[in-house]
Amino acid sequence: MHPFLAFARAKQSAIIALIRELVECESPSDHAPSVNHFVDLLATRLEGLGRVRTFPGGRFGRNLRCEFKLPDSSKRRDGGILALAHSDTVWPLGTLAQMPFRNKQGRLWGAGGAGHEVGHCVFSIRGAGTARTGHGGRKARSTAGKFR
């Protein structure tokens, strides 16, 4: 079994818990305080995995950048991995009452459950897994914000 897959399987419960936490943090596009709350939550969860910084984002809410230090990154100067994502959803506040997070029969449901929340989680776990298993070899940077 590939070391990263073994790492992800060992962390499956924590990954699902993080996805749930991110899905349940509503961040509608038109509500900067909610987007800021999501960015703060994600920044807190990424602490210790990389260098995390938040930046002003104007009327749409803050932006976040996390740089993962991956194995052998000091030897490579020709590039890295850049992931861009957004921190807002199209769902208005209160959507979770009609579309709550669910984990049933190996599937996850909920507002945003197939969107940015999962994308942030997957990239974060990949960064952590790569750093801990020694597979990867480049600097990874994740940037989250609103792109308009």
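Next protein, fold it too.
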Amino acid sequence: MTLIIYNIQPLNLNLILNKFYQLTYKKHFMKIMKTISSLFLICIFSFSLAGQSPNYTDFEWDIARIGIAAPTSGDRFDSGMSVGTELRYNLLDNLSLGFRTELSFFVASEEVKRDENNVDVGLSHTIGLTTDYYFSTVSSRRAFVGLAIGNYSTGTVRYEDGDSFLVEDKINNSFGVLPRIGYELGHLRIEAQFNLPFNKDATKYFGLSAALTLWGGYQGK
């Protein structure tokens, strides 16, 4: 096991996320981003030639999604929080295709916490494509089920005595899936999801979130 230690100001979240990015996606982020975004644009272009949703605006964007994240694998971390964003294109009145990214934080459980001055924080970043099926096509209030596929990147940041942190374990990058269900209330979207990366060492977790949605309104009469 390799320990990488950096002396920084305590609780400098911006620097922690920057270092996590460097260790995780520095070599692969742009490649992953280009691949997924290219697939998204190709699908949008292909389906738009065949038609588009008549009762809903073409695009909708979850500009701010905030939620809770509860690990279901292992006992190292307790529940944490997640922040993310997602852009969707309404292919049909009852079908959408989207592009999402989300970052989740987990705090060490009491069983593994060493003391109050040394805290482990788990991080999980996901990026991928989504598709949703809606059960109503005549209202701005409607339930949906969906699935996302993409890349999961997980790792651990440790605070050491308030003046340093280290990444203790290797960064895990793996393909994964995300089944979900939810309900749209106009421009408020509520969602329950299960994050399932296929790497056995990556953290699997349940999420519950709410998002403010821009566009995506019901245009039918």
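About the second fold: Residues 1-11 have pLDDT under 50 and may be disordered.
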